[in-house]
Sequence to fold (77 residues):
Amino acid sequence: MGSLNERPKGPAEQAFRTNVSLGVVSAVVGITMFAAVDTPWAGTPLLFLGVFFLAKAFRDVRRERSAPGDEGSEPRR
Fold:
């Protein structure tokens, strides 16, 4: 991955960037709600959602790197 101004090279990189973006935004909103709202459990669902999207993004990257011979094929889900 190069600079942020470059276009993603393929659908896998675009999906990675989308999942990371969703994960970061959800986690930050969850942490903000956790700190700002009177009930500490208010931000927990968004925090879990952020962790889910980040884990999904990095799991897909790890899966692609573990199968170097399958270049160009879609990863199994």
